[in-house]
Amino acid sequence: MASTLPTKDHSILIVGAGVFGLSTALHVAQDGYTNITVLDREPVPSPYSAGNDINKIVRAEYEDPFYTALALDAIKEWETPFWSNFYRPTGYLLTTSLNAPQKARDTIKKSFSSIGDHPSFPSGSFSAVDNANDIKRYLPMLEGQMDGWSGYLNRYAGYARAAKALEYAAKRCLELGVRFVTGDDGYAVEILFESADKGKKVCVGVKTANGDIHKAAHTILALGAHIGTLLPEISQQVTAKSWAVAHLQLSPEEAAVMKGCPVVNCRDLGFFFEPDEDTGLIKLSANGAGYTNNITTSEAQASLPTASNDGIPTEDEDLIKRLIQQAMPQFSGKELVKKFICWCADTPGSDYIIDHVPGTMGLLVVAGDSGHGFKMLPVAGKWVKKALEDDEQIIERWRWKDKKSGSDNISWRVGKVKDIKEVEFSGLKSRI
Ligand code: FSA
């Protein structure tokens, strides 16, 4: 039944209805595939998806021109009528603060020069900002002192209304005939294989928590940070890491003043967005190297997401409070609300993995968002479709890696990776 080369009537099973899963479903359905099923433990937007958030950064300046080109493609899509309801091109301020480590300053220099060097950024998209006065000229709503802040403003960027964009993608999939199975009926617990063909195990689908068998000619695993629970052998290249998210509730009057504020990302503190237009919530996140949850199972030593995402580490709450104090002290008296940790699937070099699982047929994996996947929602499915239709992944950096390769020292991150079980949570000694 399973063949490496799909035809339009072959059954395609996509496990995971997050960013990569929905984008894949959309692209294969738009291309005329007629038999597509998406499984998830929860309806879209699934709380297990890192994309289930009010907003996510959309920017294209990477230090690596490979991803700059892809993100520019994605921005073009975000600007089309299909996606534009969910894109807010507010611009993006990237800075460091007074005591930022040299690493944070260096990454800003590199990403700033990537904008200048790339012909596809509209001219006049960016301006250097050397101090708080420069920043306030462009962002007058920021009342803080922002001592020692410098960096640049990129006008060809903004953010996506993340959860809403996921809901819309699912709606368009449904219109194209994609089936969704959610809850225990959609919670994949085992990959099913049949006897070997040409020395490879043939994947025939998955079993779900309710005991159902979902058979398919092509199974695509898109489980984000949770991928290691279903496919333990990927854990040597994918590490689940989490970052803290919190919110400030603004009144309608306060939100009106902050409206239109570019995304502010201070590399050594954290980032925040303009208030959400429906709720008046400002989302903030702390910048750090991320928290793992290392566990040893019978099959592997792996970092996997915790069962609950509630609350944030105290040290991140402090960073977020410093960010508020320095940029918008008018809100310093407000309590942080809706605090949670968001799990990403990190790879050593921050490259995605989009490949056939070695030693198998009919089984493809799309993983390793590395915390920079959401902006690619409109285009990622195109890459997955290509990998599905090719016998092998021709883009080397997206291939399955048998050994841990690349460095854990991601240039845009500051600080040290810590295990979530070893840090203090606000009000709790530790997370577990
Ligand atoms: O692509 C982007 O600019 C989003 S990065 C957001 C972030 O919180 C990172 O700052 C962090 O280092 C991690 O990768 C998770 O995502």
TrEMBL record:
It holds the Pfam family DAO. Keywords: FAD, Flavoprotein, Oxidoreductase. InterPro entries: FAD-dep_OxRdtase (IPR006076), FAD/NAD-bd_sf (IPR036188), MTOX (IPR045170). GO terms for molecular function: flavin adenine dinucleotide binding; saccharopine oxidase activity; sarcosine oxidase activity. The keyword Oxidoreductase applies. Residues 12-384 form the FAD dependent oxidoreductase domain. It comes from the Eukaryota. Its cofactor is FAD. The keyword Heme does not apply. Coiled coil: none annotated. Belongs to the MSOX/MTOX family. PANTHER family: L-SACCHAROPINE OXIDASE, PEROXISOMAL SARCOSINE OXIDASE. This is FAD dependent oxidoreductase. It comes from Hyaloscypha bicolor E.
